[in-house]
Automatic annotation (TrEMBL), chain A:
<dbReference type="GO" id="GO:0007052">
    <property type="term" value="P:mitotic spindle organization"/>
</dbReference>
<comment type="similarity">
    <text>Belongs to the dynactin subunits 5/6 family. Dynactin subunit 6 subfamily.</text>
</comment>
<dbReference type="InterPro" id="IPR011004">
    <property type="entry name" value="Trimer_LpxA-like_sf"/>
</dbReference>
<feature type="region of interest" description="Disordered">
    <location>
        <begin position="1"/>
        <end position="33"/>
    </location>
</feature>
<keyword id="KW-0963">Cytoplasm</keyword>
<dbReference type="InterPro" id="IPR027777">
    <property type="entry name" value="DCTN6"/>
</dbReference>
<dbReference type="Pfam" id="PF21711">
    <property type="entry name" value="DCTN5"/>
</dbReference>
<comment type="function">
    <text>Part of the dynactin complex that activates the molecular motor dynein for ultra-processive transport along microtubules.</text>
</comment>
<dbReference type="GO" id="GO:0070840">
    <property type="term" value="F:dynein complex binding"/>
</dbReference>
TrEMBL record, chain B:
<keyword id="KW-0597">Phosphoprotein</keyword>
<protein>
    <recommendedName>
        <fullName>Dynactin subunit 4</fullName>
    </recommendedName>
</protein>
<keyword id="KW-0963">Cytoplasm</keyword>
<keyword id="KW-0007">Acetylation</keyword>
<comment type="subunit">
    <text>Subunit of dynactin, a multiprotein complex part of a tripartite complex with dynein and a adapter, such as BICDL1, BICD2 or HOOK3. The dynactin complex is built around ACTR1A/ACTB filament and consists of an actin-related filament composed of a shoulder domain, a pointed end and a barbed end. Its length is defined by its flexible shoulder domain. The soulder is composed of 2 DCTN1 subunits, 4 DCTN2 and 2 DCTN3. The 4 DCNT2 (via N-terminus) bind the ACTR1A filament and act as molecular rulers to determine the length. The pointed end is important for binding dynein-dynactin cargo adapters.</text>
</comment>
<keyword id="KW-0832">Ubl conjugation</keyword>
<comment type="similarity">
    <text>Belongs to the dynactin subunit 4 family.</text>
</comment>
<feature type="compositionally biased region" description="Basic and acidic residues">
    <location>
        <begin position="174"/>
        <end position="196"/>
    </location>
</feature>
<feature type="region of interest" description="Disordered">
    <location>
        <begin position="21"/>
        <end position="45"/>
    </location>
</feature>
Length: 215, 573
């Protein structure tokens, strides 16, 4: 069964079978976004999807794992350097009807430096600060603002327009506590950044890069 | 044990065996009648709720040949182990060290998840011993850094933790505490002597830290040492020597006085518990409440906010439950778990015994009622053939009153011998709503649970098929007749039960507006099951004389029990 290729000339189909064989299985195959700004050092795996009409900006050393979906259908998406998005995570506003109450930030999703979005998450937040970890299966609503070095533990549902201050851990539903270990020891923050950099290098070696499809 | 309809519960006999054998001399009520056995089982009775269990919850004692429910078994622990490190702890160590893991297993005081030992070393600059170590929680990210504790090595956390208090100060060991206590006692004695002459309370050699409230552990060790000395003073080596009278112990006082006071029979006085005096000072364990600590706590809350206080469940899990703030938290050692075996309460026969290997979930001995008692189950027998393409599920929650409905009672036999079953049920169900129940075939046989291949090859038990008529759906339909079973298989038989559900609201004439209580509209049928079968007489007879001559002979055995079959809810039409 031939892949339902994006609505373009058939010559593109040949390149896609060679390079990625990316099967855009959904019937609503959106055309490639007109404005994707990729840094040359970005790693985009096979089957990752970047869709939507608004601009998507991806900073240096970012890693997008297979089957992750970055959607700028309703608002732009900006990812700073060192962001890692794991499999089947969805980044981007999906429900435009939910209003944001905090209009100090622009429309769209901003992921700060070294943010890790783990498997299966749904991120519609306005901003996620530097160094934060969003663990497996979390669901961050529209307009949320998450501070730096936060940890949102697995399967948490954050309602829209929640504000999470820096160094907070959200666990057990909506319990919050301040991660004083990280807050009081800047060397632990440094160590975290160093380990993250090492992980990015390992990804570069192990995951085949399909960024040529998107440039 | 709420189950969806239809269900079957079995009644264990233990609930009515505890009737007092000797009625008290002045009984206000006559003892219950002796005909309890003949009385029908009433599932609505509040007491019967405690004796009904699904078949999977019951064990069976082969010696007593009776069902044993969870209340007629005695549990005994086989071994203790830690659920995190899976290390077995011998029971002698449990008696001395307690029921918590003494290795490296700790639970987070904030979220109770198991903690891991992490290192604080810089990944770019590794140190020799692996850096200072901490306990960290992988879920809520709490770590011992928040209470100021770091470890030197990553093993033996328990011993390291018992020496460090929050904030890095060292905790003295028991020996050091004893020395401190002796030293302070001497200072107190000297102070008392000095105060006779000087009048002042100040003396230059007082301890600097008298004003600090002693910690929880200090108080405990002081108090236990004090009570030990009290108990020691009650049993001096020579009771008659006047030099060893300890005037601070009221028990020795009373003993000396008793020696001099009376010569009458003092047996009662000797059985009184020996009196001890109470702790009188801080170094004996007395903790006088200081209002300054309360004021300090209030200031602390003002400063750090509500989030720095602890919830009651966090406090209760701590070794010292009177702490208030999260800087006083300590890691909680993991509780040990046990593997237990069950014994019959009457004859102490082992009913269930797990394997001693901790990681294995199998059982060495497993005497289940499932393997000794036939399983009853009920389902609706729809007389209307299914003509539609979609199978319509019978709705057990909507039984219609007044309409005779047929149900199929299915009995399957787990024993290796064929059994003869007699069923009995009261003609109307007990309780407010009276439904009429008739078992169309109360006595029948069920085949033995032989191998499938044995039966296929020998085919001694020919399936009984009644004269059938082809129904509208093309399948052969058996007719519902009284006195005949419905169907039979290798080790099961099914019979028909006819039920006329009763009316929910009483017809005119009775009291009006009697609201039905919860669950009174549930149709439950008590069925008395009696089995008769022949079994081999083998090692069940423990006596010596019988077993030699009766090998190979068959013995007639009989078992009987009550069951309650829950059919559904009645909805009036």
């Amino acid at each position: 069964m031939s892949t339902p290729a994006p609505a373009r000339a058939p010559s593109d189909r040949r390149t896609s079978t060679l390079g990625s064989s990316s099967s855009k299985r959904q019937s609503t195959a959106l055309p490639k976004p007109s404005s994707i700004f990729l840094d040359p050092s970005v790693l985009i795996a096979q089957h990752a999807q970047l869709t939507g009409t608004h601009p998507i900006t991806v900073g240096p050393n970012t890693v997008l794992h297979p089957h992750c979906k970055i959607s700028s259908a309703h608002a732009p998406v900006v990812m700073w350097e060192g962001v890692v998005v794991y499999e089947r995570a969805r980044v981007g506003v999906e429900n435009p009807r939910v209003m944001r109450t905090d209009t100090s930030r622009g429309d769209g999703v901003v992921l700060g430096k070294n943010v890790v979005i783990e498997t299966g998450c749904v991120i519609e937040a306005s901003e996620i600060g530097e160094g934060s970890v969003i663990e497996v299966g979390a669901n961050i609503g529209v307009g949320c603002v998450i501070g730096e070095f936060c940890t949102i533990s697995a399967s948490t549902l954050l309602p829209p327009n929640t504000h999470i201050p820096d160094f907070t851990v959200v666990y057990s539903g909506l319990e919050k506590r301040v991660n004083k270990t990280l807050q009081s020891r800047p060397e632990l923050q440094q160590a975290k950044v160093v380990m993250h950099t090492k992980q990015l290098e390992i990804f570069k070696k192990l995951v085949p890069n399909n960024v040529s499809k998107w440039t | 044990m709420a189950q969806p309809f239809p269900y079957t519960y079995y009644s264990c006999d233990c609930y009515d065996s505890k009737v007092a054998p000797n009625p008290p001399k002045r009984a206000s009520q006559p003892p219950p009648a002796d005909d309890e056995d003949e009385r029908t089982f009433d599932p609505r009775n509040a007491r019967s709720n405690y004796s009904l269990y699904p078949l999977e919850h019951l064990l069976y004692c082969e010696d007593c040949q009776q069902i044993r429910c969870q209340r007629c078994v005695i549990e005994e622990t086989l071994n203790w182990f830690c659920p995190s490190c899976l290390f077995e702890v011998p029971s002698s160590v449990i008696k001395s060290d307690g029921n918590r893991c003494t290795r490296n297993c700790y639970n987070c005081p904030v979220c109770t998840s198991p903690m891991t030992v992490n290192t604080l070393e810089d990944p770019t600059d590794p140190s020799s011993s692996g850096g200072p170590w901490i306990l960290a929680c992988p879920y809520c990210q709490w770590s011992t850094v928040e209470i100021g504790i770091e470890f030197e090595k990553h093993t033996g956390i328990t011993s390291q933790l018992s020496r460090i208090a929050n904030g890095g100060k060292t905790i003295p060991t028991a020996k050091e505490r004893d020395k401190e206590r002796e030293r302070r006692k001497e200072i107190e004695m000297r102070k008392k002597d000095r105060d006779y002459f000087s009048g002042s309370e100040d003396s230059p050699s007082t301890d600097k830290d008298e004003g600090i409230t002693p910690s929880h552990d200090d108080l405990f060790s002081n108090l236990s040492a004090f009570y030990k000395s009290q108990m020691a003073s009650q049993t001096p080596s020579n009771p008659f020597s006047p030099h060893e009278i300890n005037f601070s112990s009221p028990s020795s006082f009373s003993r000396i006085m008793n020696l001099y006071s009376s010569t009458t029979h003092k047996k009662q006085k000797r059985e009184k518990p020996s009196p001890m005096r109470e702790a009188a000072s801080v170094h004996e364990g007395l903790n006088i409440h200081d209002p300054a600590t309360d004021a300090a706590a209030i200031e602390r809350i003002k400063r750090s906010g509500w989030s720095s206080t602890l919830s009651s469940s966090q406090k209760l899990a701590q070794p010292n439950p009177s702490i208030r703030f999260d800087s006083e938290l300590r890691p909680v050692a993991s509780l040990l778990q046990t593997k237990r075996g069950k014994r019959c309460r009457n004859c102490r026969h082992i009913l269930s015994k797990p394997e001693s290997k901790i990681t294995s979930t199998r059982y060495k001995i497993k005497l289940l009622a499932l393997n000794h008692i036939p399983r009853l189950s009920i389902r609706a027998l729809s007389p209307i053939p299914l003509t539609t393409t979609q199978p319509v599920l019978y709705d057990y929650d909507r039984l219609r009153s007044g309409i005779p409905t047929h149900f199929l009672l299915h009995l399957s036999n787990p024993l290796f011998d064929p059994i003869r079953v007699t069923l009995a049920t009261p003609s109307t169900t007990p309780g407010k709503i009276q439904s009429r129940v008739t078992i169309l075939c109360p006595q029948f046989d069920v085949g033995a649970n032989t191998d499938v291949w044995d039966d296929a090859l020998s085919s001694t038990l020919s399936p009984i098929k009644k004269p059938t008529s082809i129904g509208p759906d093309g399948n052969p339909q058996t007719s519902i007749e009284a006195g005949k079973i419905w169907d039979r298989g290798r080790n099961w038989t099914s019979v028909v039960l006819e039920v006329v559900p009763g009316f929910l609201i009483q017809p005119l004439g009775s009291k009006e507006e009697e609201e039905l209580e919860e669950d009174e509209d549930v149709l439950e049928i008590p069925i008395f099951v009696r089995l008769e079968f022949e079994a081999d007489v083998n090692a069940e007879e423990r006596g010596l004389g019988d077993s030699r001559g009766t090998e190979g002979k068959r013995e007639k055995r009989e078992e009987a029990f009550w069951t309650v079959v829950g059919v559904g809810r009645i909805v009036g039409n």
